[in-house]
């Protein structure tokens, strides 16, 4: 008989990074996984995010800015980070009540990066709606993990 163990937290997290909803499938939450995949596709298509990614990676940042529907793309960071947190949280049954903190700060900083993605320039070049939000994730996670550690230390 097969051993149906719960996946490890990082395994579910990595599958959720691949596509929101995959981590939920791995955890056995099929309905929730379908909802996340549907929402990801909806926001992706309506924001034209794949075209923005294509233009950004080919160096056509202004085309990426022009094609992007920012009102829809603003939903993407929170949807993506929430799906990752949910998959991580439900993976092995052990719940840390403060595990959401790095994910929240990550989503917040990505959203701020998205807001300023058309106006911030580095070396005179606009970063655009793909690269600045990705770069903004790093300080968001860093601050989130620091706050998480401080909360855990002072809670004890």
UniProtKB/TrEMBL annotation:
TM annotation in the entry: 36-58, 70-88, 100-118, 130-154
Keyword Membrane recorded: yes
Higher taxonomy: Bacteria, Bacillati, Bacillota, Bacilli, Bacillales
Record keyword Transmembrane helix present: yes
Keywords in alphabetical order: Membrane, Transmembrane, Transmembrane helix
Protein name: Uncharacterized protein
